[in-house]
């Protein structure tokens, strides 16, 4: 990438306390632990408390990322929040965080790219630093998907969870940091994953509420096929842009949606299990929060080394996809 080298100066995540297991779900919809584990790899997910909204989860993750970066909110020039479940339509979650953090110098906006949101946000935000416009950008992926799930729909309610992850991006040693950004979209597939009502096309009415149109609607098998195609494709594109090949991957941090999607990407990339970060068994699909939570946990497990090529890759509503190839700029100390 041209300009100043940009890397991950600090990271943090937060998941709510309450855990909802597959066995709990068995009592709510016609499903079984066995089916969910076999078809998705998910065993449990975290669910926000009634008084917690997306900005509350994002705030804790952001505070932890700032602490990890040894920076204060005053040092932040821009806040970008990726979310499909904001506290409300507007103001943005980013502006709420700007206020809660007291990041008085920071510009702030939200970005919607579904589960690819964090990858999109880091890709775009990094350019504002590389170009010299800003020095430090706080990127947050935060979701309270439990609020937009139809808990009677077994096709969707079993695969999502709540959580938040954050990163502070800033200048790093030359030659390290984000080497390439590969972002893409296939809008024609948008109908396969959407929340149909609540916008200008179908504003809220009694009918939209009765039809459960304010919840996530998904055609799982279409999204699955798209995901399998783009995960490998975007990873290889990103590597090519960085002048690398699949042999150079040190750690793959994929969007945590379904273990079968991750396994198929791993096969295409000829990657052994120990080079892939997986935590979906415990958190399910936390959409825009999934990649940063997985990245934080990789750090906590001492899996990020100086000079190692870390590839983040995702797909999601839009439909969107994207990858980041990052040459890690420091060896992170294991925390667990
Ligand atoms: C949703 C998903 C797990 C479904 O798995 P699948 O193997 O494709 O299953 P299908 O949708 O083909 O359904 C197979 C059968 O299981 C049933 N089924 C679906 N959900 C079920 C559940 N929770 N429990 C039990 N059975 C279920 C279906 O009704 C279907 O039954 P039928 O054959 O009698 O009609 C899978 O398609 C998926 O992960 N897709 C990607 C979704 C995703 O990642 N979304 C987020 C994008 S960011």
What does this structure look like?
The chain is of the alpha/beta class. The protein has 2 domains: 6-175, Thiolase/Chalcone synthase (Peroxisomal Thiolase, Chain A, domain 1, 3-Layer(aba) Sandwich), CATH 3.40.47; 178-327, Thiolase/Chalcone synthase (Peroxisomal Thiolase, Chain A, domain 1, 3-Layer(aba) Sandwich). The chain is 31% helix and 23% strand. It contains 10 helices and 13 strands. It has helices spanning 22-26, 33-40, 54-68, 93-101, 117-130, 206-210, 220-241, 259-268, 280-283, 290-300, and strands at residues 6-14, 18-21, 44-47, 78-82, 107-111, 137-143, 163-171, 177-185, 193-194, 217-218, 251-254, 309-316, 320-327. The strands form 4 sheets. It has a 5-stranded mixed β-sheet with strand order 1-7-6-4-5, sandwiched between helices. Helix 3 (54-68) packs across helix 4 (93-101). The longest helix is centred in the last third of the chain and has 22 residues, at 220-241. The mean pLDDT is 97. It binds coenzyme A.
């Amino acid at each position: 990438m041209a300009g100043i080298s940009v890397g991950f100066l600090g990271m943090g995540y937060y998941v709510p306390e309450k855990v909802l297991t597959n066995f709990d779900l068995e009592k709510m919809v016609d499903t079984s632990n066995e089916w969910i584990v076999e078809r998705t790899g998910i065993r449990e997910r975290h669910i926000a408390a009634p008084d917690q909204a997306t900005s509350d989860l994002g705030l804790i993750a952001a505070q932890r990322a700032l602490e990890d970066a040894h920076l204060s909110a005053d040092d932040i020039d821009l806040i970008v929040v990726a979310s499909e479940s904001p506290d409300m339509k507007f103001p943005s979650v980013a502006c709420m965080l700007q206020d809660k953090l007291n990041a008085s110098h920071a510009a702030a906006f939200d970005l919607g790219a579904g589960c690819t949101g964090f990858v999109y946000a880091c890709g775009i935000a990094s350019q504002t630093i590389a170009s010299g416009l800003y020095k430090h950008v706080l990127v947050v992926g935060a979701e309270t998907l439990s609020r937009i799930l139809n808990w009677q729909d077994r096709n969707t309610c079993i695969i999502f969870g709540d959580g938040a992850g954050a990163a502070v991006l800033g200048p790093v040693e030359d030659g390290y940091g984000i080497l390439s950004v590969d972002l893409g979209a296939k809008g024609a597939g948008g109908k396969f994953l959407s929340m149909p009502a609540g916008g200008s096309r179908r504003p809220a009415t009694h009918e939209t509420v009765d039809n459960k149109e304010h919840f996530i609607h998904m055609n799982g098998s279409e999204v699955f096929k798209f995901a399998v195609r783009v995960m490998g494709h975007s990873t290889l594109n990103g590597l090519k842009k960085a002048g690398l090949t699949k042999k150079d991957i040190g750690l793959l941090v994929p969007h945590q949606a379904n273990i079968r999607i991750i396994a198929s990407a791993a096969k295409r990339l000829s990657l052994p299990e120990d080079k892939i970060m997986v935590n979906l068994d415990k958190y399910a699909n936390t959409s825009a929060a999934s990649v940063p939570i997985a990245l934080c946990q990789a750090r906590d497990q001492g899996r990020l080394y100086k000079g190692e090529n870390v590839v983040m890759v995702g797909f999601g509503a839009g439909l969107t996809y994207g990858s980041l190839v990052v040459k890690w700029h420091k060896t992170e100390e294991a925390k667990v």
